[in-house]
Amino acid sequence: MKRLAPLVLSSILVGCGLSPDAAPRDIPNAEQKDLVEVVAGAAGAAGTGRIYLERTDETGRSLLSAVPRQFDQDPTSILRSLVTGPTEDEQKTGLRSAIPQGTKVISARYVANDLVKVDVSSRIFDATGDDLVAAIAQIVLTLAEIDGVERVVIVVDGQPQEWPRGDGSLTTDPLTEFDYPGRAASSQPPYPGIIVDPSTTS
Fold first, then answer.
1. N- or C-end of the chain: fewer Cβ atoms within 10 A?
2. Which of 43-52, 63-72, 149-158 has the lowest mean pLDDT?
3. How many domains does the chain have?
4. Is the pTM of this model over 0.70?
5. Structural domain of residue 115, as residue ranges?
């Protein structure tokens, strides 16, 4: 009889689970998830997820690189990992963050199945020009690592803002990874060249 209890409990839990929605939908305020406040500059941790940090390539161009971190597929863990910036070992390899030290993530929540809204402190504006583009791209590309997240809204102290896309144009629309084409270094290895056997050519 005792052996049946776990099976019964498992069946009940499965029955109570939420099924995925067929299309994006707005989430009621009561169901939106507030995230803990975190501050840029704490220590990071290596693991299995990915955040985006900045590095300069051999041509002198700044690109975002995917860096492993340990977190679940939820915005709280991902944003906490992002704002902590690179570890000491990563800094030695040239990795850095364009997100200014002291930038606070005040809150973040799902407002639709594919949309996360993030509220950050005004310290984000300590970054200007291309650094601000890189900082916003870091947030957007990192959150896009979450399964199903395609759009990101970023406000400052609760107020909507215009944000730069990768081409420098400003928008108040939700941001996507496609707003920053070519900003991230490719994670794919170079395509192998085709080696031709001279003996097969005429």
1. C
2. 43-52
3. 1
4. yes
5. 25-185
